[in-house]
Specification:
Distance between the termini: 40 Å
Number of helices: 0
Shape: globular
Radius of gyration: 14 Å
Largest sheet: 7 strands, mixed
Order of helices and strands: EEEEEEEEEEE
Strand content: over 45%
Oligomer: single chain
Structural class: mainly beta
Number of strands: 11
Helix content: under 10%
Length: 118
């Protein structure tokens, strides 16, 4: 199984920056998908940014130009650098991973709270 542990959330002012980390129990090259989702109160969980096999990276339109997803293979860690934060970015952010094979497996972290408020 794969375990995902997020960290780095907190309270920031609008326009501020924050970097989230996701430590995985599996070597990153074994993962077919690795990225971030978020869920705000009263809303469905939505994709924020994700890295896919073939080194393809996708971002939600709402975060393009502000957020950057990256990884450190040696540390088995994914990052989400969030700049120019807005109040609407307030949500619980979840790390996500997927392994595809004879059957697909999906894994979720427990989430880290990000609050953007003045």
């Amino acid at each position: 199984q794969v375990q995902l542990v997020e960290s780095g959330g907190g309270l920031v002012q609008p326009g501020g920056s924050l970097r989230l980390s996701c430590v995985t129990s599996q070597s990153i090259f074994r993962l077919n998908r690795l990225g971030w989702y978020r869920q705000a109160p009263g809303k469905e969980r939505e994709l924020v940014a994700i890295m896919s096999s073939g080194s393809t990276t996708n971002y939600a339109d709402s975060v393009k130009g502000r957020f950057t997803i990256s990884r450190d293979n040696a540390k088995n860690t994914a990052y989400l650098q969030m700049n120019s934060l807005k109040p609407e970015d307030t949500a619980v952010y979840y790390c996500y991973a997927k392994i595809s094979g004879w059957r697909d497996y999906e894994y979720w972290g427990r989430g880290t709270q990000v609050t953007v408020s003045s």
